[in-house]
Design brief:
Helix content is about 45%, strand content about 15%. With about 300 residues, it is α/β, with parallel strands linked by helices. The longest helix has 29 residues. Bound molecules: NADP nicotinamide-adenine-dinucleotide phosphate.
């Protein structure tokens, strides 16, 4: 396939982006602000809206994936996790010797580059996962400095992290799944839990916003004091009557999550409390109000 490549630009400080979405465009823009010249952008299609938008704001040429590496000494892969491996293979022929190719995924390590490594042993590989939510490039550019990032691979990735002003830590491929699980809990599960707060609050006729200062202070406390020291509430105090009251009052569909987290709170507080265990188990079979089906029966 031929593409609109206008000729190689060589030398350090040149960059290409494949996968011009939220994370890839944020990282490319941040590196451009540090003096990188962005020479090419490739997306799902050379004329896709995201490819054209990123090329315009990065002042770079839209390219076909197979040609994106030409003239670039750094290639950022910002495709979805599942497409990284195939993308790395697709860009292999266009890569400059000694170029650094890195992806941004949290769930994948350097194993995704196995085929690329075999085909192009003369290029360097890495990974840099910003441990931050990047919902747009403007929010991303604001949030990136000061965030942490999991890095792996070639030593130049440390320099890239420095330029992005992120605090880097290395994660080995074997620890990658656990690391990413922690990130998912810290982000997605925390949000899912706030979904339960919203539902319980609504059932009590209380605005969700009223819980924002409490939730923010609890997160701050957990990081300032450590989760164990920050834990307060009925489970930490061993106040089983209150836990029982909560479970009895709430919709049956809310109980599983409440019980699971009550157990986690007991574990964190190191309360080996058989009465609590029994209570949480007994309430599994709590009779629902008339007409409502008990999901655990
Ligand atoms: N966003 C975050 O908060 C965040 C934070 C840290 C790390 N990351 C990581 O960053 C990576 C990208 O995530 P994202 O949130 O930026 O996703 P995204 O906004 O959906 O961007 C993905 C981009 O890749 C393009 N694309 C998809 N398949 C492709 C292919 N086969 N070849 C070339 N381009 C392709 C998409 O094109 P279209 O525009 O046409 O769909 C889109 O521009 C993931 O590995 C993710 O884990 C994301």
């Amino acid at each position: 396939m031929t593409g609109p490549v206008t000729g190689p630009v060589t030398g350090k400080g040149t960059l290409a982006l494949v996968g011009p979405g939220r994370a890839g465009s944020t990282v490319a823009l941040a590196l451009a602000a540090q003096g990188y010249q962005v020479v090419g952008v490739a997306g799902r299609a050379v004329d896709a809206a995201s490819t054209l938008a990123a090329s315009a704001c990065l002042d770079a040429e839209p390219r076909f994936v197979a040609q994106v590496g030409t003239g670039a000494m750094v290639v950022v892969i910002g495709t979805p996790d599942a497409a990284i491996e195939a993308t790395a293979e697709a860009i292999a022929p266009s890569l400059e010797p000694d170029a650094l190719v890195f992806h941004l995924a949290g769930s994948r390590g350097l194993e995704v580059f196995a085929e690329l490594r075999a085909r192009r042993p003369d290029v360097r590989i890495g990974a840099l996962h910003p441990l931050q939510s990047l919902p747009s490039t403007s929010a991303g550019l604001e949030r990136l400095p000061g965030s942490w990032a999991a890095i792996a691979g070639d030593a130049e990735i440390d320099r890239i992290a420095e330029l992005l002003e992120v605090r880097a830590f290395r994660v080995a491929d074997g620890d990658r799944e656990l690391y990413h699980a922690a990130a998912v809990v810290a982000s997605n599960h925390l949000v899912a839990l706030l979904g339960q707060v919203e539902r319980l609050a609504a059932a009590a006729g209380v605005p969700f916003d009223a819980f924002a200062p409490l939730a923010r202070a609890s997160v701050e406390n957990a990081f300032d004091l450590g989760p164990r020291a920050a834990l307060t509430g009925p489970v930490a105090r061993g106040d089983l009557a209150t836990v029982e009251g909560h479970l009895a009052a709430m919709d049956a569909g809310e109980r599983d999550a409440y019980r699971a987290l009550a157990r986690e709170a007991a574990r964190l507080a190191e309360r080996r409390d058989h009465a609590l265990d029994r209570l949480l188990d007994d309430l599994r079979t709590l009779q629902p109000p008339d007409g409502e089906e008990n999901p655990s029966s």
